[in-house]
Design goal:
mainly alpha, A middle domain of Talin 1, two-stranded antiparallel sheet, 15 helices, 6 strands, globular
């Protein structure tokens, strides 16, 4: 861990007049920028989820290829601001407690709807592996009967979500909606995403059976997503739980939360669990948006969210920019060299992410890149992992420069103990 110079200590302790825009660079103002950006990101997530709901309503009202495609496009658009908010999950307990409602992953989709025979019929780890709530008016679990005759918010969020203590029993959130809109991706590491027909939502010409209940599940899921995102907006608004908690233990503790979010998402969660693990296993089931083949953009915007936070700047979906005194400003005031190193690594990560996204958009989807024997695709993904790991190391140096105690960033066996992955 780096030590602060005498000049750096004097700068922070005496409050030397450094400004960013029209605001003085102080710890308090940096924390305020961080919270303001969080509020903006969740407001944008809510707005785009409402657009998604409107597109789902249009699909339900008039099922067609066009309305299904529009709903899928709205889902992809909704992921852009939400993924940029994930950097707020680690370090902020209120966000971490809430996050599982909207972005739990991976999921055993057989809990929700029909699946291909190749999915199997049972699992030693999940008694409800193929429960198919959409086709069932009741479920048996541990000798008890769960009434699923009416699909309600309470049923999905309070009864079914992670039922029986199984995290893969994901009944709500973006990925449940993703599965309903796309269906299973049965292509493995070959080209192609899920291809659910629009007639699965057509009550007059129903395919897949139980179209009325599938429509009900989809619309209720969209309602729930909006409810949950409203809670997140309130959490970061003035007087909100997360905004208050950010400074409740002092400014240095608040800054540590910021670095915990950046470091944990960068290292253990994104580089490790979401990327390296799937690469080691060559397993498309480990890709984050596995039904839609949108994983490259999910990873890209996760990384963008980290860069947003460090630089104290976020471009909203309407083009407005929320910015102010940043962590970068604090670090630069104590060590321009350390700040430059962080910026270089952040730029390198976004460069690697851009290569990955461009490759996916030009015809090699992320699940194809994961494939065994795809040396080029594997290399592209590994470059992303390496960049994320490298940038995490610079966060540690930046914390040292600011005199902050280094937290324990989220880890992953795929990075810290690779042999354990195959045990």
């Amino acid at each position: 861990m780096l030590k602060r110079s005498v000049a750096a200590v004097a700068l922070l302790s005496l409050g030397a007049c450094v400004t960013s825009g029209d605001k003085e660079v102080t710890k308090a103002n940096v924390l305020d920028t961080y919270a303001n950006i969080a509020q903006a990101k969740f407001e944008d997530s809510l707005t785009t989820a409402q657009d998604l709901q409107a597109a789902i309503d249009a699909l339900v009202a008039k099922p067609s290829e066009e309305t299904l495609d529009a709903a899928r496009d709205a889902w992809v658009a909704a992921r852009v601001p939400y993924q940029q908010s994930e950097v707020y999950r680690f370090g902020n307990a209120a966000v971490d407690d809430w996050e599982g409602k909207v972005n739990a992953w991976p999921l055993d989709e057989g809990l929700i709807d029909y699946v291909d025979a190749g999915y199997g019929v049972d699992s030693d780890e999940n008694a409800l592996y193929t429960a198919n709530v959409i086709a069932s008016t009741s479920l048996k679990l541990g000798g008890e009967t769960v009434d699923t005759s009416v699909i309600t918010k309470q049923l999905l969020s309070e009864t079914l979500h992670e039922i029986d203590g199984v995290e893969a029993n994901v009944a709500t959130g973006y990925h449940a909606i993703e599965f309903l809109l796309w269906g299973q991706d049965l292509n493995g590491t070959d080209a192609g995403a899920g291809d659910r027909p629009y007639t699965d939502f057509d009550l007059a010409n129903c395919t897949g059976a139980n179209c009325d209940r599938r429509v009900q599940y989809l619309t209720v899921s969209a309602d729930l997503l909006i409810d949950d995102l409203k809670d997140a907006v309130a959490m970061w608004s003035e007087g909100g739980q997360a905004r208050i908690a950010l400074t409740s233990d002092g400014e240095d503790a608040g800054l540590t939360k910021i670095f915990t979010g950046m470091g944990s998402l960068s290292y253990g969660e994104l580089a490790g669990e979401r990327i390296k693990l799937g690469l080691m296993l060559n397993d498309p089931e480990e890709e984050h948006d596995c039904f839609s083949d949108n994983t490259h953009w999910s990873h890209y915007y996760d990384a963008k969210g980290i860069q947003n936070v460090y630089n104290g700047s976020y471009t909203r979906v309407n083009g407005d920019v929320i910015s102010g005194p940043s962590v970068s400003d604090l670090v630069k005031a104590t060590s321009a060299d350390v700040d430059a190193a962080v910026q270089q690594k952040l730029d390198a990560t976004m460069g690697a992410m851009t290569v990955m996204a461009d490759k996916a958009e030009s015809g090699m989807a992320y699940d194809q890149m994961l494939g065994e024997g795809n040396a080029n695709g594997n290399r592209i993904i590994q470059d992303v992992v390496d960049s994320l790991v490298d940038q995490t190391k610079t966060f540690e140096a930046a914390m040292g420069t600011l005199g902050l105690t280094l937290p324990e960033f989220e880890g992953s066996d795929s990075l810290d103990n690779p042999s354990a992955v195959f045990e």
